[in-house]
Every structure is written in C-alpha cells, then in structure tokens.
Amino acid sequence: xxxxxxxxxxxxxxxxxxxxxxxxxxxxxxxxxxxxxxxxxxxxxxxxxxxxxxxxxxxxxxxxxxxxxxxxxxxxxxxxxxxxxxxxxxxxxxxxxxxxxxxxxxxxxxxxxxxxxxxxxxxxxxxxxxxxxxxxxxxxxxxxxxxxxxxxxxxxxxxxxxxxxxxxxxxxxxxxxxxxxxxxxxxxxxxxxxxxxxxxxxxxxxxxxxxxxxxxxxxxxxxxxxxxxxxxxxxxxxxxxxxxxxxxxxxxxxxxxxxxxxxxxxxxxxxxxxxxxxxxxxxxxxxxxxxxxxxxxxxxxxxxxxxxxxxxxxxxxxxxxxxxxxxxxxxxxxxxxxxxxxxxxxxxx
Length: 349
Ligand code: NAP
Ligand code: ZN
Ligand code: ZN
What we know:
Elements: E1 2-8, E2 17-23, E3 30-39, H1 42-48, E4 65-72, E5 84-87, E6 90-92, H2 98-101, E7 113-114, E8 133-137, E9 142-143, H3 150-153, H4 159-169, E10 177-181, H5 185-196, E11 200-205, H6 211-217, E12 221-224, H7 229-233, E13 238-243, H8 251-255, E14 258-266, H9 279-282, E15 287-290, H10 296-309, E16 315-319, H11 323-331, E17 338-342
Parallel strand pairs: 10-11, 10-13, 11-12, 13-14, 14-15, 16-17
Antiparallel strand pairs: 1-2, 3-4, 3-8, 3-17, 4-5, 5-9, 6-7
Helix pairs in contact: 4-5, 4-10
Bound molecules: NADP nicotinamide-adenine-dinucleotide phosphate and zinc ion (2 copies).
C-alpha cells in the first residue's frame, strides 16, 4: 500500500482538511497516475455536505482527474509511463451486463463504482482526486489529448462528458436550437460543445451578468430567467434544453420553451424533489429526460472531439488550501467557470 497525501471531509459539517490515504499496489491491469490537477464539480459539494444523503466519511472527493502515468501493471497495453491520463466519475463496473457491453458503464445493472464516496469490489472505500496519486484499471482510464493544456482539460472528465453525452444523444447539430440552462461548470462546457457541434446555442441564466462571457464561449445569445418576458419571447423555441441547475426550479415553466416533440434533459441534481405540472409535457408531446455522465468509449470520443476543436474549460486554478473558499464561491455561482486544484500544492499540506 502507498501512503498518499489527500484532502478529506471528516463529516458533512466540517471543512475539508489534510488527510492521508493508502492506494493499492498496482495489479496486472492497473495504471498508476501522479495526479496533477483535479476539477471541483458541484457534485463534490453536494456529497461532502451530504445534500443527497448516504455520504460516507472520511470522503476524499474529486472526479475530474488528470495526471501523468508513472507505472503500469504487467498486462497493461493501453498506457505507458509518461502518458497523460484522465479519470472521471467511475473507476470500475461489472463489465458483464448489457450496458457495460454497450459502453454505457455509467448505467451498469450491478453498479458503476464511483471514483469516491463508494466501495470497490473488495469493499474498500474509493477515494477521489484531491490526492497525489490514484491507481485505476486501464479499462477505466482515458487518454487526454497531448496538445491540450492539462489543467484546463481536467473538467472535461465530468463537466465535459456530462454535456457531450446528452447533446449527442439528442442530436444537437446544425439546424438545431439548443438551450443551456445555468452557466456554471457544466453549462459553459455545454455552450462550447454545442457550438462546436454546429447548433444554435442560447444560454438561460439567472441574470444578464454573464452575457459577455456567454458570447465569448460561443453562445448566440443569453436570456435572463429572472425576466418574465424571456418566457414569452422564447416560447416553443428549443429542440433541446439541457438543464444544469443544481437547485429546484419550476421545470414546467422551462418545458414551455421547448418545441413540440422537443426535450428537456436534466443533468443538475437538486436535493429536493421537484413537483411538475404535466400539462406542458402533454400539450407539446415533449420529453422530460435525465442523463448521467457518459461511458468510457464516449468519454474518449469527447476528449478526442475536444482535442480536435481545441476545447478546454475556462478555469480558475486554486491551491488545495483554498478548497473550502472555492466551494462557497461555487455555491454562490461565483466561478468563471470551473475551479481546478493544483495538486502540487498538496506537498505543502
Ligand atoms: P455550478 O458550476 O454551480 O453551476 C450551476 C449553475 O446553475 C450556476 O452557475 C448558475 O448559473 C445556475 N444556478 C445556481 N443556482 C441557481 C438557482 N437558485 N436558480 C437558478 N439557477 C441557478 O455546478 P456544476 O458543477 O455545473 O453542476 C451542476 C449540477 O449538475 C449539480 O447539481 C451537479 O451535482 C450536477 N452534475 C450532474 C452530472 C450528471 O452526470 N448528471 C454530472 C456532474 C454534475 P447562472 O449563474 O447562469 O444562473
Ligand atoms: Zn462531476
Ligand atoms: Zn455492468
């Protein structure tokens, strides 16, 4: 076992603080990665603060992991020392069910083993990327395009794939009108990817504050959801809305912005149940759907797509010692547009 410096939440009520974990000795199919950067996803906040229930502590969050391969097991064929590598939201799955066979491991019938706040097949807790090292089976590790800046690539591993997958599944592309609801970590990746796919992109944000940013990121326009006129102007406008908002909203109101036969896909995960007036669904044959991240094959496809289009995240690099402040700023929608932890800072902890 390798002792590894990390940052952990000891409970839902305590700030994250230095902690030591042990990483397993590499097995024959394992890849050992020196973590260089890890993004801060809003999910890290939901889970360390136990907003969804069922959190297990101590918790080392982080599932937007990029780093350099330092060693590989004897049977590894996909990676070699020195390679750039990424790890996203899960580190294993059953590998046998129909979804695993189809490259949709995130929907594994047994379970996807989440990168943190989970237990592996040996019933050991999994610890995420707020740490110096990680050891993962090669089949669950991604190749990060060499020419992309490594720090700004980290958020692709969750925010990037979480938007890429529904945008592809619901055919965002030329001639399609796509709405991105919430311009945060997920939302800003959605704007970049939907624009690169050739769709018309409109951001729906709480205010007009992020209008300039939205345009710069590739959006055609931004409308404020605090302005009731937005809901008449954009009634039945969208083929697809991807809802990235992390708190409860009146979903029925947003469904009114979707065309007949269009869809609103929810990726943001509020802690409270949502009540929905079904009339906008029925009267527009609209679909209300959900989506979680993407499988390994699709995540690699997304990374290659981002490599081709030179898409990375807009990041604010932070030392790990400021992670609790960063969390508070994410909750206040005060991040442009993703915090990424410089893991080198862990040495000083
Ligand atoms: P984030 O950076 O905090 O972005 C969320 C955005 O939602 C904010 O920037 C804000 O955008 C908007 N928003 C926040 N509070 C709001 C409110 N009260 N009313 C209306 N809009 C509000 O978070 P994130 O990392 O993108 O994650 C978003 C959600 O997706 C979280 O719940 C997270 O757990 C979930 N998630 C899901 C998946 C998945 O696979 N389904 C993957 C990763 C994360 P504006 O300022 O533009 O309004
Ligand atoms: Zn995430
Ligand atoms: Zn499976």
